[in-house]
Amino acid sequence: TIDISQLHKELGYFTFDPGFVATASCRSSITYLDGDKGILEYRGYPIEQLAESSTFTEVCYLLLHGELPNKDDLSKFDHTITTHTMLHEAMKRFYSGFRRDAHPMSTMVGVVGALSSFYHHGEDIHDPEHRKITAHRLIAKMPTIAAWSYRYANGQPMVYPKNSLDYSSNFLHMMFSMPTEEYTPDPLYVKALDLLLILHADHEQNASTSTVRLAGSSGANPFAALSAGIASLWGPAHGGANEAVIRMLQDIVDSDNDVAHYVARAKDKSDRFRLMGFGHRVYKNFDPRAVIIRKTCMDLLAKLGPDNEYQALFDTAHELEKIALADDYFVKRNLYPNVDFYSGIILLAMGIPLNMFTVIFAMARTVGWISQWNEMIADDDFRIGRPRQLYTGANTRDYVDIENR
Ligand code: ACO
Q: Which keywords appear in this protein's UniProt record, sorted alphabetically (predicted)?
């Protein structure tokens, strides 16, 4: 590793690295990723073990504090989270300013940014206690914000959080409960959702996390910085891919399963089409999250029975994966299924609508974003992020009056 900032100071060196392919923007002790070997660890714990044995709130504690909680720590943490699940009543009116059928991600960008107006005065980001409360507020409120975005887009009444429920059950309750009938979340779906939240909780310096860090590096309000991260996540090259995968799979199923045609399109450079849910900047091997999610998806569909309506999507995805992995184009470029490839089928099977997929990703990633923000502010080397550029514009020239142009 070369410390360019030192070389810059001593010798005036610059690097040109569009897309930050080979530039570390920070030191971090939160998440370890080895893209060649397909390894992902949170605070040193392999993702496979956390997926098997942990819960989402336990993973939140781990990411924030660096260590697994004991029973007492976890029960206090869970309790603290439940004390912050409500939104200020005025926020309900804020929702009604959005277009009637707004995409829930657009609402989420706005609502999370707007919360900075509630948590602004007298809040000092350099006070660790304040940063802890901010993390608790965000983790606690995000399911409420997410579910209300959905309820608003559907013209349904907002459902308040129920603090006797665990994190994932509470989200499903706010999504699906109706004043007219009692809703009990299916334990199968609660477990699947909790697993998806664990797998999406952090992924080191991806586009949205780097956005949160860069926005926050100016000392900006953390709610505003997270809102910027949510905006970044929304793009189809990042978190928006889970929604795009299902649209692609549905198109393939509707085209009589002409999988080969879609693979050929993805290889054709004159066509902007890409296989959604395929490829990753860092993983040049299997994304370990995709392996876990594919298995969970298979188990869930098996429990729903052979005639379940999502089987066709899964079979098509599986076929696509097989064809692509045997194709030179994908092999040479190390393109494997990523976290988004199978996750959407699980969400669909749970009754989650397509436009909520990236919202759920944002809900999960909130703990990663705020842990990374916290780590950045606490770092002794903390300074504003300010990339440089290679200027390619005009040389110096004199202003010409409009009559003489
Ligand atoms: N389908 C077809 N070809 C692809 C795909 C794909 N999904 N992904 C990359 N390639 C090709 C590119 O065309 C390029 O080919 P070339 O060398 O002949 O020009 C080569 O593979 C390298 O691709 P880049 O775009 O340079 O890779 P980069 O690291 O910049 O992009 C990304 C990674 C954005 C994930 C890309 O693979 C992609 O667009 N995938 C589809 C969208 C997706 O699934 N995003 C989710 C990522 S995971 C997440 O953010 C949660």
A: Acyltransferase, Membrane, Transferase, Transmembrane, Transmembrane helix, Tricarboxylic acid cycle
